[in-house]
Amino acid sequence: MPDRPDLLFLVHDLARNLRLDADRRARTYGMTRAQWVILMWLERQPGLSQKELAELVEVEPITIARLIDRLEQHGMVERRDDPHDRRIWRLHLRDKALPVLRDLAMERAEILQTVSAGISADDLNLINTALCRMKANVVAELRARPIERDVA
User: Fold this and answer.
1) What domains lie within the chain, and their CATH numbers?
2) Who contacts 39 (Cβ-Cβ below 8 Å, separation ≥6)?
3) Which helix H or strand E contains 79, and what residues bound it?
4) What SS3 class is residue 150?
5) Please, which residues have CB within 8 angstroms of residue 40's CB and are 6 or more apart in sequence?
6) Is the pLDDT of residue 146 over 70?
7) What is the predicted pLDDT for the residue at 2?
């Protein structure tokens, strides 16, 4: 058994537990984590297409369409025609999403407080820098050598 924990297992387990916590928190608001993620992306990048959003969220376009349908029914998101391509819907937040985004910001702050408890500001800065470098390394590797998938 190694002296140190395995970094890949730690990152995986932390991400999984953060997803579980976010799922639990989203349910208390009658929403899903996926809906929260969509709202956050549309706040950051208004006017994304459903296809672009599906790629960012890493789900199939039909899944995004269904999630957007629900958010649209709740008055939080609207689809607008793309001025250059009538086959594309551009997604925008509506005012009804703003209180949800404020709640989400509060929940994210609580999650960050929990995950960073007992860690100094300098160490958090180092962790953030290291994780950004790790992400950039993996993205560069994926671009250099795309994964080939077997089609069954």
Assistant:
1) 7-143 (1.10.10.10)
2) 71, 76, 77, 93, 97, 100, 101, 104
3) strand 77-81
4) coil
5) 101, 104
6) yes
7) 64
What tokens were used for 134?
A: 């790790």
Residue 103 in tokens: 């709640």
Cα–Cα distance measured from residue 24 to residue 33, given in angstroms and rounded to the nearest whole number: 9
91, β-bridge pairs: 79
Say whether pTM exceeds 0.85: no
What secondary structure, in 3-state letters, does 1-61 show?
A: CCCCCCHHHHHHHHHHHHHHHHHHHHHHCCCCHHHHHHHHHHHHCCCCEHHHHHHHHCCCH
CA dist., res. 20 & res. 36, Å (int): 14
CA distance 84 to 81: 9
What are the structure tokens assigned to 144, written together? 């250099």
pLDDT value of residue 148: 72
